[in-house]
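Predict the structure of Leucine rich repeat protein.
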Amino acid sequence: TTPYLNNSLEGLGLSENNFTVIPKNVYNLINLKKFGFFSNRLIKLDPLIGNLKELVKLDLSNNKLTKLPNELFTLKKLKWLNLSNNQLLEVKFINYLYNLEELGLGNNNLINLKIFNLKKLKILPVYSNKLKNILLKDCKSLEKLDISDNKIKELNWTDIEQMKRLKYLNIKNNCIKEIKHKI
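Done. Here is the predicted structure for Leucine rich repeat protein.
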């Protein structure tokens, strides 16, 4: 456990420790905007994460998460979410986080990924997963997309063309034989 924490706290860093759970009193910090909990031993994220409605930046990278509670996807103010270097199998409700600008999903166990209507999303690293399929619709602000080191066989180039702000695209080390232009 952690000692009493002041409710007016807006930033908290508990990273690079040996926590297996987020201390319960963290979920009472209703004014928390930035929370760093990377490089711990977190296996499961408590549904109480949904209490932190003011969160703008959340870093849960380098843990041992395999799934996420639905409550995470009620954090509508989130702009920056890093879930890289976990063991996630899916991120079903990510599309409800419509204010996301950066979403880190690299080095997980994702097989399918469907992202749509994240119109503010600028950076999406999804490298080193097991992705066979990726769907990206209406990601008009995307500037950087890294889907390298996956198992993608086919890429819908029409979706890529819609990304008018795209500056960096990495599709290396996949199973792509051709890039199809679908209408």
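Helices lie at 157-161.
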